[in-house]
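Fold this complex.
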Amino acid sequence: MNVPKDLFYTKEHEWISVKDDTGVVGITDHAQKELGDVVYVDLPEAGSRFETGEAFGSVESVKAVSEVYSPVTGRILEVNSSLSDAPETINQDPYVKGWMVRVKLEDSTELHNLMSADDYKRYLEEELGE
Amino acid sequence: MVDFVGWEMPVQYESALQEHQAVRAAVGLFDVSHMGRVRFKGPRALDTIQKVTCNDAAKLADGQAQYSALLTESGGFIDDIVVHRLKQDEFMICVNASNRERDVRWFLDHRLGDTEIADESEASAQIAVQGPKALEVLQPMTDVPLGEIKYYWFRMGAVDKVPCLIARTGYTGEDGFELYLPAEAAERIWNLILERGSAIGARPAGLAARNTLRLEMKYALYGNDIDETTSPWEAGLGWIVKLAKGDFVGKPVLETQKQAGVSRKLVGFELIDRGIARDHCPVLVDGNPMGHVTSGSYSPSLQKSIGLAYLPVDRSAVGARFKVDVRGKMLEAGVVETPFYRRK
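Structure:
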């Protein structure tokens, strides 16, 4: 399972990479594998604001739909609009080209509540028997 | 894997999309052994089948199959089935897994004479080989000239020495065959077909692909699109109702419904707004609740969101618009021609 070092993770299998007060959010390799072929991605409007744990969009495969929850509180700066024509990018490259939104963090201390790569790996092993 | 009425079945082997495309372009293998197989034997076998089904099984010749249904006294679906005539006094009926026990009880309750009714589901297996290259894959394994079997006909024959009922039937909209064979031989034949077919793109396909393939054809799924509350007239399955054939369970109500006309009709739709309408999403016509999406999915062949829903007859014409509530968003949908997909 691919779990990059420099990201933060949620129990719902989102990742966020943070630079200064800006975060980039997507779903993890584990999440895309569980979901299967992604055929549709629903993204929010730029400018909308989400609280931690609030669903900001959804990712759908042939067989299922999965809500995607904001790892932090903040306003959406930009969405990855290329996903509407190429939703399969999430399967192919969940951590780089498959990013979903860029968000302006309101409170960077919220990051302390998220998991590190090592924590997330352990979480996958323990909680999910991976 | 998911539990499907007690059967552990794969939703997908590797990729539902690729499995769907394999069936449309080459060949896919489905293990459909969970389906029920019931044998009828005896001089009154046909009479019994005529009594409990709405299609006319008397029209069948030896080696011919027919799509039909079991109905309640009030004309709703107990199950949709395929009747195979082996001989004048011997039939094999393929039923849905989820209805098998109830169907068998229903058959026994309506049995005429001393008709032998045997549930052979456990001892037998069923493999669907579906796709434009199905014949090419199967032919080297059997002496039966597969090209001579017409759609909805079957032959008895050996597939790599295993006795099979080989039917040119399926649930995908592609050419293909369904093999009915002894359970103990199923694994070997399954592996053999995959091995021989791998060079031309044969791959195993799971429940997700089976669902999108049948939905693109508007083939009804029992429990979703048809059930005890729906009549064949509403479901667009009037073509399997033969009122002229004589008495059968449900006939008086179907006659009344035919004269009076039904108020709703199962239609195919596409979402016009972006999104995917799925099973159970509420449907609104002019803002009024009108049931729900009975089957809805992304269509891999059309790359659109397609689905089925019951609409008021006067709002069911091709082009008619309505809304689907997809997790709180009211998305625009339009009635389209079905089947959604047409074989090239």
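The domain at 8-112 of chain A is CATH 2.40.50.100 (OB fold (Dihydrolipoamide Acetyltransferase, E2P)).
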